């Protein structure tokens, strides 16, 4: 059996509150209330390096686990919510082509069409737990309540809007105050946002880390007896300075025969006519060298990075996939703002792949 990873977290929590069909791979035990708190962008290596700023997290029991590829929020939350790897749930990147509509979907900006259930039709763990009689809740910003991503990967839970740390603690208390068994998910975005804007290890980022630690401390204090909370993340982050930024549209040899660019600066999806795929991959390998690992669609699927991949989902993956290495970022005019940010993620460095799995008990 493989080591447990992010895709096993919510299923383990569901098993802890008695939902059949799931394995408790993180040791929740038989509990009345199971909580999963996800701190966006909090990589394990960052947490260890800056542990002095996060005493609650640093003192918790647990260790590192792996997130999914790409190491980006839509793919990771898809795996958290469904228990499947991206090759099965279909959220294959920060943005990607939907062949059925011939449009690029950015799940973080998703509202309206296409219908979430048409993009991600697999049942969520929340839906399964709710059918089993467990009260399920998601606690997060009100603006995310009706988003396409929420409805694609977290549907089935009651959404409890809470904007700050105190409100999230109150919402957890409300979610776990009933007599029945409960499964609750708490989301905190600030560490990721500040890391993108200011860089990991910066003064603003350290302040955000301290606030995340205070949130976890407050949630831990609010846990009722007979409960367990696992704190994890969706991915880590690396700093990519401007000097390591490659503006791909500024290099004609990189854009030759490329019909569409998607993904994000650390993982680019390139779409092209089949006859041009090998030539594009060859030019990207020659130009980028050690700055990126360049794979064709068939090659990236064969590596198993996406897990078992349905044929229908495979068509969403770029015909060529370029995964940045070191501190490189593959900037594009398609996402000019995102490409200009210092903090990035999506690739395969351990700083991006390793995330915490820390247990707290009421």
The CATH level-2 architecture of the largest domain is identified as 3-Layer(aba) Sandwich
The unreliable regions are: none
Strand content: 15-25%
Q: Please estimate the helix content.
A: 25-40%
Q: How many individual helices? A: 17
Class based on secondary structure composition and strand pairing = alpha/beta
Distance between the termini: 30 Å
Say how many strands there are: 17
Strand order of the largest sheet: 2-17-8-1-7-5-6
CATH topology of the largest domain: Alkaline Phosphatase, subunit A
Question: What can you see in these coordinates?
Answer:
The protein is of the alpha/beta class and 362 residues long. The chain folds into 2 domains: 6-84 and 122-237 and 348-361, Alkaline Phosphatase, subunit A (3-Layer(aba) Sandwich); 242-341, Gyrase A, domain 2. The chain is 35% helix and 22% strand. The chain contains 17 helices and 17 strands. The protein has helices at residues 9-16, 44-49, 55-59, 73-82, 86-89, 116-119, 125-131, 148-153, 165-175, 190-198, 203-222, 252-255, 277-288, 297-303, 311-314, 336-339, 350-353; strands spanning 33-39, 61-66, 96-98, 103-105, 135-140, 158-161, 182-188, 227-232, 238-239, 245-247, 260-264, 267-271, 292-296, 320-324, 329-331, 343-344, 354-361. The strands form 5 sheets. It has a 7-stranded mixed sheet with strand order 2-17-8-1-7-5-6, with helices on both faces. Strands 11-12-14-13 form a 4-stranded antiparallel sheet. Strands 3-4 form a two-stranded antiparallel sheet. Strand 3 (96-98) and strand 4 form a beta hairpin. Helix 9 packs parallel to helix 11 and helix 10 (190-198) runs antiparallel to helix 11. The chain is globular. The model has no long low-confidence stretch (mean pLDDT 97). One of its GO terms (molecular function) is hydrolase activity. Pfam families: Phosphodiest. InterPro entries: Alkaline_phosphatase_core_sf, Phosphodiest/P_Trfase.
